[in-house]
Model the fold of this input.
Amino acid sequence: MDLPMLGRRLLGNSLSILVTRLTQSIATFVLSASIARILGPYELGQYLLAFGYYFIFMSLASQGFKVLFTRELSRNPDETPTYLVSGTLLQLFFCFVGYAMLAGLIFILPYKPDTSMVCYVMGLAIFPFAISNITESVFQAKEKMYLITISTVPIYVLRLVVMIWAMQSGYGVVDLAAITVMSEVLILLIEWGLILRMVTPKWKISWEFIRTALKSVRTFIAIEGVAVINTRMQLVILSLLGGEIVVGLYGSIVQLMQPFDILSSSLTVGVFPSMTKTVALGLRKQRQLSERIIEMLCFVALPITTGVFFFGRDLLDLVYQKSDFTTAAIPLCIVSVGLIASSFSRPLSYLLVANHFEKINMREVLTTTFTASVMGFFLVSRFGLMGAAISVLLMRLSSVAQYVYAVCANLFSVRFWRIIRRPLLVSTLMVFVLWLLKNSGSNIWVVLAVSISIYALLLGSLVVLNLGGPRVAYAKLLQR
Done:
């Protein structure tokens, strides 16, 4: 496959995943802000805590299978009917295990009864979401990510509308959790309807497949499971040491970081099948693709971090419209620095998996999770929300250091300056723009409009210059 064709396919897949994740991110963001405004920080903490536990055990039950199945189906598409039926049965068994673990843990932890009930109801979403991961693995392996977008985006929008209506009508957080479960069931039904049009299932259980999958998936379950525990650990620690209101404040920070996390995840998930195929083309092609992805993420991470340092407090006030949330301004700045580290760590982690170095990933997540847990309990117990933010930053720095070392030791050296120089140039120019806006006393809406417009202009100019100037860029555009 030549690079132009690879680039177009990568762009299409990444855009499809990006639209899906971006819609999900926007819907989650609007929902969190609506819960904070309509119900309050306590209820926001309940919802985010329940969703955090659901996400942990859903990932333990399913995400390892999704990565494994996507990789193997990319190489062996003829096995799709077997994966679809036997893989779904295997996934269903792990869903029961995952929900039982969630319910048992919530039962023994000292949460209030109303908070526990939200967690129990939200946890039921493990079943439809995890099973739909099998169909999405097929879509990703066949590089038809647009089918995921078709299946999920309308439901995300509908779910948000129904949830806001429910809150305005007097319904509570338990009802929001039930709506989440029903929406995931609907997505599962739609995806099965689409996949039955392109795949004829082999309605026979392959026990040999199940045994092989169980043997192969252990490392992926450990990697994905420990990784998600790593990312959600601060939420759990805060809920035990600080309570639901502090969880709500921490969640307000996390939600503001979601757009970048969704972009990062969408881009890496979209490129993963191509990254796997590029392994056969040699290390030079792998380096080109990896550096391109990291640079694209840095183009977003650096300006976001810069903007948060200038206008973080104004952004919190704009979104949540409650004075309680503006106390999270400094922790927000600390957490935003970690986006730069994430720009490197996520693509490099997928690169290692594509080259069958997933045991390195497992070692990284185990190490990072252990150190983050120890640091988290110490820092949160002493500094509260500020300690949680510092712990998140240290965790991300530890993660990127381990991934960079692993790639340099096993594949190729990471050329930092080559990756960072252009994003750094754009961000440096944005510092001057943001400083002027800060000192002008402009409204936050004016700041957002002007800064985004100037950033887009700077980025577009850089792209045009990189292509050889306006005339060359225009000629290439006409050729396409």
Remarks:
- Residues 128 and 137 are 14 Å apart (CA to CA).
- The two ends are 18 Å apart (CA to CA).
